Amino acid sequence: IRVQPLRSRVITLNADQNPLQFAVPGGLIGVGTLLDPTLCRGDKLVGSVLGTVGTLPKVVIEIEIKYFLLRRLLGVVSEGKKQAKITKLDKNEGLLVNIGSSSVGARVVGVKDTLAKLVLVSATCTENGESIALSRRIDRHWRLIGWAKIVKGKAIKLEEE
After folding, report:
1. Which burial class, exposed, middle or buried, applies to 79 when counting CB atoms under 10 A from its CB (0-12, 13-18, 19+)?
2. Can you say how many angstroms the Cα of residue 129 is from the centroid of all Cα atoms in its chain?
3. ∠ CA 90-96-99, rounded to 5°
4. Cα(first)–Cα(last) distance of the chain, in Å?
5. Position 42 confidence tier, pLDDT thresholds 50, 70, 90
6. Any bridge partners for residue 110, and if so which?
7. I need a labelling partner for 158 at 20 to 30 A (CA). Which of 5, 42, 83, 120 fits?
8. Where are the beta strands (DSSP E) in the chain?
9. DSSP label of 5
10. Residue 161 has pLDDT above 60, yes or no
11. Are 137 and 158 in contact (CB under 8 A)?
12. How far, in whole angstroms, is CA 80 from its chain's centroid?
């Protein structure tokens, strides 16, 4: 997997139709840059992280998590009018992991008690201690099965221009 950072300059900040002098957490903010618009088409940059050079979290491809599973599936009625129980994570199981605003596929490569090691399908910018959501494919739908905290991530080297 190749990861190349995009570098640009922020030209404008907008919230709705209001120009902003600076951005604060909480709410949606439009960021005008000098990036070529073809890089952004088709929501290609969804889940990307914007920040000052040298201040962003590392980009990881493998994470170790401490997870907590729900007892039963939420909002799903199975046979017998009872909610289905959630089973423990299995080795080689496919999951959908929500890290920040990005949804990333993952494969479980190791499980021990409430610790698991996941290999991500695509590289993601994250840091240790971040909370994530875990979903499992049940009846052709992704269903929330629990949450986790990232204990450790295996960083990959970024390609410089």
Report:
1. exposed
2. 13
3. 120
4. 16
5. confident
6. 117
7. 42
8. 10-15, 18-19, 30-33, 59-69, 72-77, 83-85, 94-99, 102-112, 115-125, 131-138, 141-155
9. -
10. no
11. no
12. 35
Residue that the structure tokens 């599936």 belong to: 73
Enter the tokens of residue 99. Answer: 């890290």
Copy the structure tokens of residue 100: 């920040």
State the Cα–Cα distance between residues 20 and 29, nearest whole angstrom: 9
Q: Which two tokens stand for residue 98?
A: 């929500």
With cut-offs at 50, 70 and 90, classify the pLDDT of residue 3.
confident
What predicted TM-score, i.e. pTM, was given to this entire model?
Answer: 0.82
**Pairwise CA distance, residues 8 & 13, whole Å:** 14
Torsion sign over Cα 45, 48, 64, 56? positive
Q: Which two tokens stand for residue 61?
A: 């491809």
Q: How many Å apart are CA 34 and CA 37, to the nearest integer?
A: 9
Q: Following CA atoms 81, 86, 90, 95 in sequence, which dihedral angle do they give, to the nearest 10 degrees? A: 90
The rounded distance, in Å, linking the Cα atoms of 117 and 107 is 9
At 52, list the tokens.
């000052």
